[in-house]
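Please check this record.
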Amino acid sequence: MIKYGMHCKSAPSFFFKKNHQISSYICIRKHKLNMKLSILFIINPVSGIGKQKKVEEIINTEIDHNKWTVDVVYTQHKGHGLELSSAAANKYKIVVAVGGDGTVNEVGRGLIGSETALGIIPTGSGNGLARYLEIPFKINRALQVINQAELRAIDVVKINEYHSLNVAGIGFDAFVSHKFATKKNRGPLAYMQLITKEFMDYKSSKYKVTINNETREWDAFIISFANSTQYGNNVHIAPEACIDDGLVDVCVIRDFPKYTAPALLISMLDQSIGLNKYDMIIKSPKVVVEHKTGLLGHVDGEPVNLGKIAEVEVMHLALKVVAPSPELRQSQNLLSPFIEMLPTLPNINTIGRGGNVNLISKT
């Protein structure tokens, strides 16, 4: 049941129903209060490695209450982030996804083509788009980025009926994504354990690929469609990818001897992938992949089924995002993902403004 915040205790002047199977509602103010801008935080309470557990308290302390009127809502099931952001599009200045790549994808998809910008507080296990944008991983620092509200437009990659903000693909990475979705343990270590377990038995497959009006057939281990440079955890699949160039970087890793796997991994870490014998990267605004049986795919790490044909195209500058100014950018290195897992408490007293955060619905 909805819990209206301080500004919505009486019947709101405008509200909408999230879904007629869901008993709670989101209150949307029709008019700004005291000319403040409105911001909605969508928190995935089960994302990644648990950093999101303190985020509501930190939001209340760190957000600039002189600038923002704040609402907070928690996702309750898969797909809920998309429902919430779709309903909030063009009604809030910023909608912030608090979670990992899957949460960012859900929330971002609901804002495509709207005037509402996507903000990110990365609390997941990979955080590929956040790393590309150099968003800080300490929650208080990420909220400083939100307070500044510097916006940029980015591309979105459309794969059949799905949308990718970061990296999508078929082949081994998609196979692992489908497996990982069934696991209880999350985080980089759990993901690497699964890759190690499944790698030796996985067989490459033959794909018919049309890129830049040229059709080829490849026995491929992976075909990735990269909007940004990396999967997450600083594992790069397309080091030269640019998120606003109107092109998708298609990385094809052809069938290779398994004993060369260490060299492949190193190329992803040192960003030399695409320069080796078994892999190539081609930029294109559109690509079509065909397979004789159904294609297992992933979209920003989330498993999807693509059918026998995957049609990939770029939606140029279709989404606004909040990006850090130079002084707030967090550079990455190979140890960053492991450092982030250390049990540290963020400093929540640096601004100390305090204010009213409207909890819309938590249960």
Observations:
- The longest helix spans residues 188-199.
- The domain at 162-316 is CATH 2.60.200.40 (Tumour Suppressor Smad4).
- DSSP finds nine helices and 18 strands in the chain.
